[in-house]
């Protein structure tokens, strides 16, 4: 059974995907071996991971609040 709130084609799905991507990249930035492998490039296609990690670490309070609000929305309002 596929839940429609997790499809990437809806606005909710895009927000969930973006938040999970930012949180994952910020976590990977804290792991030394993965940081040097995945987040070493700052430009190009691989630079998206670096930029998401920077957003996740600099705006960690806003990202955490957004995750809590999205979880509340998906569990109780959707």
UniProtKB/TrEMBL annotation:
Q: Which InterPro entries match?
A: Kish-B, Ksh1
Subcellular location per UniProt equals: Golgi apparatus membrane
State the signal peptide span. none
What GO cellular-component annotations does this UniProt entry give?
Golgi membrane
Pfam families, per the entry: DUF1242 (PF06842)
Query: Where do the TM regions start and end?
Result: 6-28, 48-76
Q: Which domain of life is it from?
A: Eukaryota
Please give, as recorded in its UniProt entry, the membrane topology of this protein: Single-pass type I membrane protein
Q: Which UniProt keywords apply?
A: Golgi apparatus, Membrane, Signal, Transmembrane, Transmembrane helix
Main role?
Involved in the early part of the secretory pathway.
PANTHER family, A to Z:
PROTEIN KISH-B
Sequence similarity:
Belongs to the KISH family.
What is this protein's name? Answer: Protein kish
Native source organism of the sequence: Cyprinus carpio
């Amino acid at each position: 059974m596929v839940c429609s709130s997790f499809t990437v084609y809806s606005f909710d799905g895009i927000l969930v995907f973006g938040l999970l991507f930012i949180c994952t990249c910020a976590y990977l930035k804290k792991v030394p071996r993965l940081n040097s492998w995945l987040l070493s490039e700052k430009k190009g296609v691989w630079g998206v991971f670096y930029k998401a990690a920077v957003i996740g670490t600099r705006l960690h309070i806003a990202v955490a609040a957004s995750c809590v609000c999205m979880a509340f929305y998906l569990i109780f309002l959707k």
